[in-house]
Amino acid sequence: MKNWNDSKKGTRKGGKLGFPRFKGKRAGLSCRFTTGSFGLADGDRRHVQLPRIGVVRTHESTRKLARPVETGAARIRSATVSYRAGRWFVSFSVEITRADPAPARPDVTVGVDLGIKSLAVLSTGEVIANPKHLEVALRELRRLQRQASRRTGPDRRSGQKPSNRWRKTQARIAKLHAKVANARRDGLHKLSTRLVRTFGVVVLEDLNVAGMVKNRRLARQVAGVGMAELQRQVEYKASWAGVCVHIADRWYPSSKTCSGCGVVKAKLRLSDRVFTCFSCGMSMDRDLNAARNLAKLVEVTTSSHSWWATENEPNGNPHKTRTTRAAGTATGRPAPNGAGQRRHC
Fold first, then answer.
1. Which of 197, 220, 198, 178 is nearest to 83 (CA)?
2. In degrees rounded to 5, what are phi and psi of residue 237?
3. Contact between residue 199 and residue 234 where contact means Cβ atoms under 8 Å apart
4. DSSP state of 97
């Protein structure tokens, strides 16, 4: 309030501040401490100190944070207490000097193709299975939701308050959702850490996740993978380890392009899980072919002689076309491989 008042009077430096907005009950209960006595309890790895609250015992050990703090390599700047799914959490903002290890194979470029059938397919041929945490918990989730529908819930029109039995069921539903989210986040963290610590260059796709979830048949499966979260984790972890991350253009036809000869199909249905090239006859898994094209994209964009040319398919049908990448073709147009591509090194 003081900062807003000083900003309104013009006595505060910086940009103009608006009136503070207060959180509602549905926004999530949380508060942040920047002043006062907070941090880890002295001589104990199971307690934390919070302002006005005092010493609180933690469920998890704080030894990973206590070791760098005791040696002076880390400094706690703030503490945030939040309430999620029936549990209280405290998170510390720490200023620390990181020493991330260099990647084991710094001269290797890997393409990562994300999907629903498999969580990720690497250009090296490795397939990371999709654990489908939400699908596993869906049976229990449906049972709890049916149970909640039979119990007295809130009614705004009549002013009816929810029953205690309804509140208990809602708490169990929230706990189940939190369990699924934690399991998904843990798997993505392990995958992103392994990619950054293994390869020197990681190539990902700029997927339109917001548009993919509009498909009512695949919305739940797409949302359960966490594609955007994996890209976010890879980008910030790569900046710590000095790894280059290339984000391919959203319109780059990685699935339609042959990784052997470079021919691009005009159409490729989602049900076609095996990519078959009409030009060279190569047959490969669709996702593996896309991952290898992503890995080659870094080399292709460095060449100034990449063009796109349209030809008829070899089956003689003039209505079906294919797109080939030729060097120095005067009738073609510059390849859109680098258009919209982002690079983080």
1. 178
2. -75, -35
3. no
4. -
Structure tokens at 205: 């796709």
**Sign of the torsion angle spanned by Cα atoms 149, 153, 155, 160:** positive
CB contact set of 345 (below 8 Å; sequence gap of 6+): 242, 243, 244, 245
What's the predicted TM-score (pTM) here?
A: 0.77
Of 337, 333, 309, 324, nearest to 205 by C-alpha is 337
- Per the CB < 8 A criterion, the answer to whether 181 and 225 are in contact is no
Q: Is 105 helix (H, G, I), strand (E, B) or coil?
A: strand
Residue that has been written with the tokens 């509140």 in this structure: 167
Alpha-carbon span 10 to 3, nearest angstrom: 10
Sign, Cα dihedral of 23, 28, 32, 37 = positive
Place of tokens 């392009």: 257
Kindly list the averaged pLDDT for each block of 10 residues, start to end, along the chain of length 345: 91 88 80 91 89 92 92 92 91 88 90 92 92 94 96 88 94 94 95 94 91 90 92 93 90 87 84 85 88 84 39 38 32 40 70
Return the residue matching tokens 């069921």.
Answer: 169
Element containing residue 113 per DSSP (H, E)? strand 105-114
How far CA 117 is from CA of 94, 184, 215, 264, in Å, comes to 38, 15, 16, 23
Q: Which of 44, 70, 65 is nearest to 56 (CA)?
A: 44
Q: How is residue 57 written in tokens?
A: 């015992």
194 sits in which H/E element:
helix 164-198
Q: How far is CA 151 from the centre of its chain?
A: 36
Enzyme catalytic residues: 113, 205, 287
At 7, is the secondary structure helix, strand, or coil? helix
Q: Is the dihedral of CA 150, 151, 156, 158 positive or negative?
A: positive
